[in-house]
Amino acid sequence: MTSAGTSPVGAREPDSVPSPPYVGPMWCSACGVAAHESLCAPCRRTCVAASDRVAGNLVVRAPYLHEGAARQLVLRVKYGGSPRALSVLADAMASIVDPAILALVPIPRTWVRRWRYGVDPAKALARAVSHRTGIPVVAALSAPIGGRANAGAPRAQRRPPAFIARSGVPDGAVLVDDVVTTGRTVNAAARALGGAIGSALSATTVRGVTSLLRTADPGGTWT
User: Fold this and answer.
1) Residue 127: how many CA atoms within 13 Å on its side-chain side?
2) Among 93, 94, 49, 55, which residue's Cα sits nearest to residue 69?
3) Which of 17, 80, 100, 190 has its CA 20 to 30 A from that of 138?
4) How far apart, in whole angstroms, are the C-alpha atoms of residue 218 and residue 215?
């Protein structure tokens, strides 16, 4: 049963259009120099693999730490909607998705920032990962019109948007975001959904955020 104003559990995102891998002239997606692959060798060496982390009540999985070329790729998607950077990050995210995941729930950007930068990074990443894995995107969250930007603000001063649940989510769903820093945003999104999701997938996570993030216990499950 759904409450008034919500959609049925598992409703597919109506405007979801697959984001195919980028095909075009080869140059590094992070620094822009000529390269035979999507990332040049120097940039590839700066991409550091991330461990699974716990943020509040969520297990967070990301392919990279938010530094070096991986950070630059996220910024290119976040503020420029770069299809090349999006493709590189989506490939990496798709490679670590657990087979048990049944739905991707993007954490939406506020309407003001979406209008300003012309892209909703989590939604774009979720669509691209969906295209690679076949896992459906479920638009279960709405973001407010505006709000204070967290990027660049001291961690103690960051506040998540007040998300609203648009629909329920199916079992096996995972939240999707571009980067997890303090973990406040992903946890706010999970709370808006009534705690129905216990995990998140992001392109990058921040190293050494010990106040809210810690490496997941060995043997911990990704569900």
Assistant:
1) 19
2) 49
3) 80
4) 9
Ordered by start, the domain boundaries in the chain are 41-147+157-215
pLDDT at position 210 is 40
Distance between terminal CA atoms of the chain? 24
Q: Tell me, which fold does domain 41-147+157-215 have in CATH?
A: Rossmann fold (3.40.50)
Question: What does the DSSP 8-state code read for residue 152?
Answer: T
- pLDDT of amino acid 175: 98
Q: Which residues contact 77 (CB under 8 A, 6 or more apart)?
A: 85, 86, 89, 119, 121, 124, 125, 178, 203
Let me know if 198 is exposed, middle or buried by CB neighbors in 10 A (0-12, 13-18, 19+): middle
Nearest in space to 179 (alpha carbons), one of 33, 73, 32, 20 = 73
Asked if the model's pLDDT at residue 18 lies above 80, the reply is no
What is the enclosing helix (H) or strand (E) of 77? helix 68-80
